Amino acid sequence: MDEHSAHRPLLLSKGSSLGDFKKRPLLVSSAKWILKVTMWVIFIAWATLIFLLPSESMNKSYQKLIQATHGTVLGITGSIFMVFSAPILIIAFLSIAYLIISGEEELQEKKSPKFPRFRLWTFPVIVDGPFGVVSAAELIGILLFSLYIIWAVSAYTVRNLNLLSEFQLTFKEESYLMLELSGLRFGSIGLFCLAFLFLPIARGSVLLRLIDIPFEHATKYHVWLGHLTMVIFTLHGLLYVVAWAMQGRLLREILEWKNIGVANLPGVISLAAGLLMWVTSLPPVRKQNFELFFYTHQLYVVFVIFLALHVGDFIFSIAAGGIFLFVLDRFLRFCQSRRTVNIISASCLPCGTVELVLSKPGNLRYNALSFIFLQVRELSWLQWHPFSVSSSPLDGKYHLSVLIKVLGKWTEKLRGIILNVSEEEPQVRQPLQPRSKLTASVEGPYGHESSYHLTYENLILVAGGIGISPFLAILSDILHRIEDRKPCLPQNILIVWAVKRSNELPLLYTFDMESICPFFSDKLNLEIQTYVTRESEPPLEEGKVHKSMNSSFFPVSNRCGMSILVGTGNTIWSGIYVMVSTIGFIISVGLLDICYINPFGVSSWWYKGLLFVACMVASVLIFGGLVIGLWHLWERKTSTGEACEDDGQKINIMQNNEAKEYKEPCQNTFSSTSTIQYGRRPDFKEIFGSISERWGDVDVGVIVCGPPTLQSSVAKECRSQNLKRCNHPIFHFNSHSFDL
């Protein structure tokens, strides 16, 4: 390596120069700009319509539209669907085109801004409270939803009072009618909240990929919307119950199942299922008994179906767009999870952590901040657990790895199986007896559409315990990119790691950086600050050798990798899947109206609602299933003949090191850039203040992976430093913690 190589821009690949650096074609940039503007116009128009609908003037215009389309082929249902659900699906279609045009290399052309600037998504505003850490952009969203609820309730209340003034009623009759009208209005507001509720939990959703919000972040939006929706639906049902009870007809009304009009009994069943999901999702219940939360949440099927029976097809179509996108994602996840994935190797580390290396096809892409949902068949056929990926895509084409902290029954059983297999003596096995193996199913990988850790020249990575796992992937990714001369902005990295016991230190300190990128310290300024919080001094055996890890290596067979049938995978195939299924849904509803509902005069609201849901599911199974079948055939064709030569070397190295002993941090090659402090926690005010003085007026990406208390502490210091900033860095807060 020549003496000038360290000074060449890392954004340039081998053989390239500043002069021949490729620029994005004008046509592609123009197409992306047009698509982006179009999507924003559609979304703003759709949101404005929903916001203004409670007003008298907008409601009159809406009623005129409904009346004008009453005699059309799809009738009122088609009109309402086009107004409230179609915009979301159209945006999804345009998102697919946008992602295809953008391609996978957009990140490589991004450059860091000349001057540091605040970003709404990474500026923490609220750091304590029921919402956790809330960014400026999230606060704007919360305020807009709150404003809509207040405005809608106020506008509907005024309309209810005006309506009551037109009739000569007694005070008691007015009270009954006011309660029922208020219940009706809350039901309408709840439906619009429901239109958003399912969007954040479509893990591979093209909409989440468009705005680059990964599922683990979007989950909290689902939680917020879930609380809001259930509060509104509970008020909806409670107001009716009070009105009926005051009139002495509660039982009769609850059990009523009308053919024309709203059927009450399905609504009661739907609300009961929703309340059960809501109560078991509250933090005290969820943290004490996660399985109860998980299994009761499968009642969403009952909730949705009986909601459709309750309100009929045309009212249900208000929220159908978001639900349909969720059904698309759920079916794709189901198809991917049917594949059995062999675990290449499993290791029990001395610190009570398990490492699994999973086989994957070469064309399944992910990034260093991805995560997967894992099911191990030998442990349970029902339990799925999320884990951050601890390997970089550049570590190997045909595998990925995860680190699992042994904390509960499931992880204890997994560790026990690995220890039992590793202790088997090869001589005990019969010559023709196959080796034991672990089989798993995987959903994912999911995560950010772009590797945002590569967009900062300066990074602070804050981890608590096993939270170091994704940062190992980040380090590996950056080192590989430096070694391979691939696009990579980070130049200064500070790792702050807090652990309870010193036996966890090998997770980071045995990570051999120089084997990935020799002399990386010439190009990367890396500093590591480790805090052992529950030990006041180094253990007596420091500097000595730990006992070796227990490892099991399993046979690698062809086509044992995870399936590429994932929404975050091939954009073209996932786009075809969404488009064909949506078109199939519209065709199914149209044919049902033309061939069955209109000729036979079907008028029952609940029955038409059931048929509408049936069309939704059937279109995904039939039209979407056809695309998935072709996608699967394409996967088999492209993977034929693929061998795992790239990973063979890695697995051989792992096997050779099976008996390798873990050494203490002081023997590590980069110990000169690291410090270990015992008996204290990180002082983020001191750490961030020191960084401010040393790094100057720059953008600093702060990524946190750890418990909520750690996230709050870091976010609070980011906010504090940003507010009093004067020629100091802007700290951009990013959380990589998964909290269901």
TrEMBL record:
Subcellular location, record wording: Membrane
Entry EC no(s): 1.16.1.7
Gene3D superfamilies linked to this entry: Nucleotide-binding domain of ferredoxin-NADP reductase (FNR) module
InterPro entries: FAD-bd_8, FAD-bd_FR_type, Fe3_Rdtase_TM_dom, Fe_red_NAD-bd_6, FNR_nucleotide-bd, RBOH/FRE, Riboflavin_synthase-like_b-brl
Transmembrane segments: 33-53, 73-101, 139-158, 179-201, 221-245, 257-279, 299-328, 572-597, 609-634
Membrane topology: Multi-pass membrane protein
Catalytic activity: 2 a Fe(II)-siderophore + NAD(+) + H(+) = 2 a Fe(III)-siderophore + NADH
Gene Ontology annotations for the cellular component aspect, listed alphabetically: plasma membrane
Domain FAD-binding FR-type stretches: 336-452
CDD domains reported for this sequence: NOX_Duox_like_FAD_NADP
GO molecular function (one): ferric-chelate reductase (NADH) activity
Keywords: FAD, Flavoprotein, Heme, Ion transport, Iron, Membrane, Metal-binding, NAD, Oxidoreductase, Transmembrane, Transmembrane helix, Transport
GO biological process, one term: monoatomic ion transport
Keyword Coiled coil attributed: no
UniProt keyword Amino-acid biosynthesis present: no
Name of the protein this chain belongs to: ferric-chelate reductase (NADH)
Classification lineage: Eukaryota, Viridiplantae, Streptophyta, Embryophyta, Tracheophyta
